[in-house]
Write a structure and sequence with these properties.
- With 172 residues, this protein is of the alpha/beta class.
- It has two domains: 8-72; 84-171, Glutaredoxin, CATH 3.40.30.
- It has helices spanning 14-22, 31-41, 49-59, 63-72, 92-96, 99-109, 157-171; strands spanning 3-4, 84-89, 120-122, 128-133, 145-147, 150-152.
- β5 (145-147) and β6 (150-152) form a beta hairpin.
- The structure holds FE2/S2 (inorganic) cluster (FES).
Length: 172
């Protein structure tokens, strides 16, 4: 899986890391929550490598342990995330009803050309991170797309375009 990241990737300030660790009475036993708070604190909603190394140093635990936790749970991000999240279901029901075409539309809309093998990408303007999921458990609504955690069913390319327009209209 390859991630195309937006150009800016800033580490978290050391004092933010110290503060978040200090907020947990037993940070070593609470590593998951420490990492979750750190990710939330980052304006690009991710955990830079420098932050993970700092966490390991400050908490006196092996960097490999911190990295293995972050890579095990899919809700942790190792690359900067777009402002909005778009998740396209690639399960069988959604695939047979056109989810690959929807992904292709997203690539094109993002100015990234045709469909490639990447399952996760962030648009060059940092507005959206697109990822796929194996199944939302809503197969009767196939094809299913989630935008910022709102589930949409029976999505066509036209409907997807409308949803993206609504998203940018909310911004302005
Ligand atoms: S296959 Fe898409 S929701 Fe189940």
């Amino acid at each position: 899986m390859i991630t195309i990241a937006p150009p800016i990737a800033e580490p978290l300030d050391a004092w933010v890391i110290d503060q978040i660790i200090a907020n947990h009475p037993d940070p070593t036993g609470d590593l998951l929550n420490v990492l979750e708070d750190l990710q939330e604190a980052h304006p690009d909603n991710y955990l830079p490598r420098t932050t993970l190394r700092a966490v390991a140093d400050r908490m006196g635990i092996a960097a490999s342990r911190v990295f293995s936790v972050v890579t095990f749970y899919s809700f942790f991000n190792l690359d900067p995330q777009g402002k909005h999240s778009v998740v396209v279901c690639r399960g069988t029901a959604c695939h047979t009803r056109g989810s690959r075409h929807l992904l292709q539309c997203l690539y094109r809309e993002s100015g990234m050309g045709g469909l490639r093998d990447e399952e996760v990408f962030t648009t060059p303007d940092g507005q959206m991170t697109v990822r796929t999921v194996a199944c939302f458990g809503q197969c009767a609504l196939a094809p299913v797309v989630a935008i910022d955690e709102d589930i949409h069913g029976y999505v066509t390319d036209v409907r997807l375009g409308e949803l993206l327009k609504e998203l940018s209209a909310r911004e302005s």
